[in-house]
């Protein structure tokens, strides 16, 4: 289970309500790309026009804004269904769209990226030259309390 949220930039605050809602969907799909790509998922929105515009099988009119056209083009690479859900039935995620604390100079993505890079490099520099064998995996699995319980239940 995960959630993601971010503040709008100054320019994004000037977007129409429809564009801001579409931007939120794009942010979510981009943020969870590795979980969503290649799998069917549902886009649930409380914006009925957007649920029709971003419908996977919808042909957009020629007068569609360039921004919405880009969003629809990007989303066409995914296997999704759009569901409309009334705002008063969607309260569990509504809090993420409310006023937020001003962002720090360093974004959350940058902080997370720095932490991931640190963990990645720690792993690289601590890699053992030993060959990994079945017996090594078995021994290490027995040492791990959680995995040992699972193995015991499977036997």
From TrEMBL:
Keywords per UniProt: Endonuclease, Hydrolase, Nuclease, Nucleotidyltransferase, RNA-directed DNA polymerase, Transferase
GO molecular function: endonuclease activity; hydrolase activity; RNA-directed DNA polymerase activity
Classification via CDD domains: RNase_HI_RT_Ty3
Keyword Nuclease: yes
InterPro entries recorded: DNA/RNA_pol_sf, Retrovirus_Pol_polyprotein, RT_RNaseH
Domain Reverse transcriptase RNase H-like: 1-78
Record-linked PANTHER family: PROTEIN CBG26694, PROTEIN NYNRIN-LIKE
Name of the protein described by the UniProt record: Reverse transcriptase RNase H-like domain-containing protein
Organism of derivation: Cuerna arida
């Amino acid at each position: 289970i995960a959630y993601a949220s971010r503040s709008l930039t100054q320019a994004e605050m000037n977007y129409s309500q429809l564009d801001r809602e579409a931007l939120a969907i794009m942010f979510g799909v981009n943020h969870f790309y590795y979980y969503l790509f290649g799998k069917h998922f549902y886009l649930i929105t409380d914006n009925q026009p957007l649920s029709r515009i971003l419908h996977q099988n919808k042909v957009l009119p020629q007068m569609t804004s360039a921004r919405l056209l880009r969003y629809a083009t990007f989303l066409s690479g995914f296997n999704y269904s759009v569901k409309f859900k009334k705002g008063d039935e969607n309260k569990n995620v509504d809090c993420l769209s409310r006023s937020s604390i001003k962002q720090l100079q360093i974004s959350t993505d940058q902080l997370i990226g720095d932490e991931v890079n640190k963990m990645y490099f720690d792993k690289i520099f601590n890699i053992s030259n030993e060959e990994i064998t079945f017996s090594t995996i078995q021994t290490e699995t027995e040492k791990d309390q959680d995995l040992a319980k699972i193995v015991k239940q499977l036997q």
